[in-house]
Fold this protein.
Amino acid sequence: MFDTHAHIHDPSFDIDRVDMLKRAKRAGVGRILTVGCDLTDSARALETARAYGLAASIGIHPHEAKDAPNDLAGALEALRASGVADPIAVGEIGLDYYYAHSPRDIQRDVFVAQLRYARASALPAIFHQRDAFDDFVTILRAEFARPMRGVVHCFTGDAAQARTLVDEFGLKLGIGGVVTFKTADALRDAVREAGLAHIVLETDCPYLAPVPHRGKRNEPAFMPATAARLAELFATNVEEIVARTNANADTLFGA
Ligand SMILES: [Zn+2]
Ligand SMILES: [Zn+2]
């Protein structure tokens, strides 16, 4: 399994990171992408990737958009050129209107600047979108076109949104613990509608642990619970879920 969206460098793992990564390996999670949320956090993602043999991404989360530097591309390029580790994606970037941690106009500007950086550097993008679907799609229509690649991480939308993201933009949908939640019937419909060719697995750990671990600190070793729920959903076995989502992740990240 490939955990395409984790925050392994998060301080909540400082107490047991080595053991936690051993548990991940034992659970069949062979690859992990640790995702940056601002410049400092992205530097930490790169260092953690180098120390533990993970993949990393660099980017500024919409929550942190208000603190983004003016020369965003320059700052991201400096991180990329730091030589600590080679980032395999730009993210997480996007819009979050659920929490108002950064003003919406600043979120949009910072999102656009990072999309342009992703295009210029030929890196796939990891998108975070919450309660901002219309503006998100408007910006994609203006700034994102194939052969650019990307994933909408922690996708929790409906079937119509899934169709737009997959059909119009060729995006992958990152599916994590939420798909196991009892109340997530609309999401399960959307995932079925998107189809196995368009989803990748993620944890978003330390957040959003799947059932039966819900409410605990999440970690990659819990990912089999999500894969098992997807196997049920697609009336297939876990092996096929793993093989298909791994292949989708390879396409996404150009492995
Ligand atoms: Zn996110
Ligand atoms: Zn995240």
User: Anything to note?
Assistant: The chain has nine helices and eight strands. The chain has a mean pLDDT of 97.
